Amino acid sequence: MSKAPSKALIAYLPDFLDYTEIVKGLAENSLKNYHRFLQKFIFWLKENNLQKIRPDQLTADLVWQYRLFLSRSANKKTRSGLKKNTQNLYLIALRALLEFFAEKDIQSLPPSKVKLAKEKGDKEIKFLNLQQIESLLLSPNLKTQIGRRDRAILEALFSTGLRVEELVNLNRDQIGPLPRSRELEVAVIGKGRKIRTVYFSERSVAWLKKYLDSRHDLDQALFINYWRAAKNGDSRRLTKKSIEDIVKKYVRQAGLPVMATPHTLRHSFATDLLMQGVDLRLVQEFLGHRNIATTQIYTHVTNKQLKDVHHRLHGGTKIKN
């Protein structure tokens, strides 16, 4: 049973931030963003002499008035109105606060009453088909140490769907002794310090082994830079920018029409799974998405694929009038 709130809505902000840090496990940057986005809501409350309202006094009409305020607010840099996706960041923060009230059984407006602004058009997802993936994977020069490393990087990105930051942070001891022909499971720490298991395919493991067998250093980083020598025991771990540059290099070499990034390979991984009939919830787990809504962006791609298949193969489209 919900309990009546005992203090003003804005007084709960420190409790909310503690909750998101300890229970939700959000990273420091995410906490700062929530705090910053909610400051705008607090500013609006004060401007309208609503700073003393309790959570149970927040109504759908007040949320609507706040949405109008966001819609008509000007960006300080561009002097133009806030973009829809920016407005949604403020609304998502408010929704998270209401979810906190619900979790703590504090009477308040249901989070579902905070509707997000509709953006024009669907978010475009860039991904590579399997033929393009193959061209990309075959691009590195395997006669060189760098080429073998780069092939292992490309294989790992497509096989696991790892974020580039997650790939960069991998250590050799996480991989362990590699078998010649077996898949590999590795636990990684993703966004929000959330731990999940990723899966390296048999082929990806084979390329990792070829790359690691040619290394004779003691650096713990899984993927290292060969262009500079380590100083005073510093790691030669590749950076996020280095991985991005590596992918772009081979995209150009392969002559692909899509200017792919490491995240494009993540999109390709997810899209391939969905096209093979994998359930969206499972894809969510593979990607480490906290919210299923984040994973649903891929359904725009797969829905179009279904439409194309229906158009090409369904007999009803071939019957003459």
UniProtKB/TrEMBL annotation:
Residues 123-311 form the Tyr recombinase domain. The keyword DNA-binding applies. The keyword DNA-binding applies. PROSITE patterns: CB, TYR_RECOMBINASE. Residues 7-102 form the Core-binding (CB) domain. GO terms for molecular function: DNA binding. It comes from the Bacteria. It holds the Pfam family Phage_integrase. Transmembrane segments: none annotated. Keywords: DNA integration, DNA recombination, DNA-binding. InterPro entries: CB, DNA_brk_join_enz, Integrase-like_cat_sf, Integrase_catalytic, Integrase_recombinase_N, Integrase_SAM-like_N, Tyrosine_recombinase_XerCD. GO terms for biological process: DNA integration; DNA recombination. PANTHER family: INTEGRASE_RECOMBINASE PROTEIN MJ0367-RELATED, PHAGE INTEGRASE-RELATED. Belongs to the 'phage' integrase family. This is Tyrosine recombinase XerC. It comes from Candidatus Falkowbacteria bacterium CG23_combo_of_CG06-09_8_20_14_all_49_15.
